[in-house]
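User: Before I run my own analysis I want an independent prediction to cross-check against. Here's the chain; please return only the structure tokens and, at the end, one sentence I can use as a sanity check.
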Amino acid sequence: MTSTIFIILLLIASLIIFALYKYMIPSSDGAPRTIDEYEYESKLQKESAYSYHTGDIDKTIKLTSRAIEQNPNDVVSKFILGKLYVEKKQYKRALELFEELKQINKNHLPTREKLLECYVAVNNITKAEKELNFIIEIKPNDINILHTQALIYEKNKNTTATMNDLKLKVREKLARLCETKGEFTRAIQEYEILYSYSPDDDYIYKLIDLYIRAERPQDAVDLLEQMLSENENDTKIIKKLAFLYWDLNEYDMALEYLEKINPISSEEEELIADYSSQIYIYQEEYDKVIELCRKFLEKYPNSDTIKINLSKAFLAKQEFQTAIDVIKDLLAETTAVNKEKNLQNYLSDLFGQWAVYYLKNDNYQEAFEKL
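Assistant: Structure tokens:
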């Protein structure tokens, strides 16, 4: 009994669905649509999608236009056709469709974005600004919209101080957003434009920082060298060049610029001495390291960093006892637990290397004592 009722209900539901398709859903001329019409439209959509993915835009336009003829109320097909016209740079036709769609639903954001794109393309700045004002209320931090806003402001013939200030503010916001999102190449482009508007030091140092973050250190070096040619005594530029050349493993150039720096504090002096001594260690000029470190320690006797570099130089010269004595003196002065632990580990390593030295020379007794 239950199964019979279920079958009857299923048949009734099928009849209702058939009636809806055949008599209640309107066709292109307002008359009831048939199953055949739906099948025809489905076939058109499939053909259209296939032709688009094979790169045949013209055929896609024809098929989409035919779908609209079949059903003039098909807003999806009209939107797709508008986008196809934009791809073909047929902006007048695209604008007609998007304006029609705007009348149907003025709050449809993709339609308004396409209208903005088209009005910018045909250089209708007044209408582009109207679309922009609508969109930017909804998407105030969208990179592409901000970029379009910047383009519109540039095309605007208004050259007042207010407009120029707006141009800078939009570009700055766009540059910061690109940087925040890790789009360094695009951020660089924006800061280059900003620098062309206003040769501000903040822009140029931001550019240098972005070149480095975008793994373009040579561009940063070139820009700094250009700046230095205009102001050869600028310590800030010299320091940046020295450390950039260090990062590029161009140690001779790094050393050249380190020697030009006129330090303004003991911390800066220590930094220069540290980098310089590390370069000399790399170049195996250990006597220069010793001379530099001792000279610095005469002035600032409590520098842990320089003492460690001094110890490394003595170690490289295989003057193990002197290297160890430097670290022992440093340990006696240290109260910080973490630092003491690191120094103890380093000291153990020194004794280990000393023992290896004796082993290589078949002096097992001395090796055993050092271990």
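Sanity check: The CA atoms of residues 284 and 366 lie 27 Å apart.
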